[in-house]
Amino acid sequence: MKPKLFIPGPTHVDEEILRAISQYPIGHRTNDYRELQSKVVSGIKEVLFTEQSVLLSTSSATGLMEAGVRNLSKKKVANFVCGAFSERQADLTRIAGLDQDVFHVDWGQPTLPDQVDSALSRGDYDLVTVVFNETSTGVMNPIAEIGEVLKNYPDTLLMVDAVSGMMGAPLKVDEWGIDMSLASVQKAWALPPGFAVMSLSDRALERSKSILESQKGYYFDFVRMHKAGEKSQTTVTPSIPHIYGLSVQLDRIKAEGIENRFARHREMANRVRQWGKERFGLYAHAGYESDTLTCFTNDMGIDLIALAEEMKKRNYLISGGYGDLKGKTFRIAHMGDLQIEDIDDVLNVLDEVISGL
Ligand SMILES: Cc1ncc(COP(=O)(O)O)c(C=O)c1O
Q1: Ligand 1 within 6 A of 153 CB?
Q2: Which atom of ligand 1 is nearest to the CA of 8?
Q3: Is the peptide bond between 10 and the residue preceding it cis, with omega within 30 degrees of 0?
Q4: Would the pTM of this model clear 0.90, i.e. be above it?
């Protein structure tokens, strides 16, 4: 028996999705395909609360993180860093050779609107990068409030890495003023890894049009991707199995109801946090705990490697600390298609294992 996934990606994949992705492929330049892509893109727009563009990418999320800074900045980027993945975004900006300033907070703390406002009031930035849900620390940033700040800086675009938050918590792309949001599908979308989705505002598309191809490259040129998207196509051969999977997953999300899906994530998060507070500590600053994963401090001083190993023996996969937190924290994901019963189950088994360590 395969271990059930309680790691923050890849997450548990339902049998119905597994069946959908194993369908026989269709030609990606056919009308059948166009219909499929069109349905998927409309469905994604609905759940991201956006009327702007949605683009599909056969890559993991990091491809789109790299593409975002390369397509959307020609002046200077303000990267807000609160953990390992937002740090990666800053690295990708540096590697692209773009002008940048990086604004840190201590790990476990959120990026707050005041910090963003103070940075933007002092520098001439054309792009802000911020993470929605920092998977390394279990912090969920207040993107709506950060988006409010950005409204006072009309030439500055807002790019949000929503990898482990999208579909697990509301991401109101248009209302919050997000110019680009992105996520891979192996997190709260609950599909197997290998595919990513993004939203792109009209003004972000205009910015990309003004950027040299030598900076953007071919594969991830948003203008090319958008042009193909208008015909319900992709620039390159897409991972058709993932698009089959997304189509079925969007039907499932609709049947559950998007608000119910978010409420389920909140309920699972509350259960895990309560459990964690009674036994360990929570790494995320109070009030900014993620609804999709929880990062625990090791207050009981238990052997975290043994804990993960013992869980695996019982067919449950949990995660250790990530990056600088390796060996110091551990994480449980409560996202995607996991249900409250799965959470109760894994917490009971954790208790049993911990008592024997
Ligand atoms: C917040 C965040 N950003 C980016 C990534 C990178 O995503 P991918 O592995 O799909 O490139 C991850 C992966 O865990 C993540 O959690």
Answers
A1: no
A2: 14
A3: yes
A4: yes
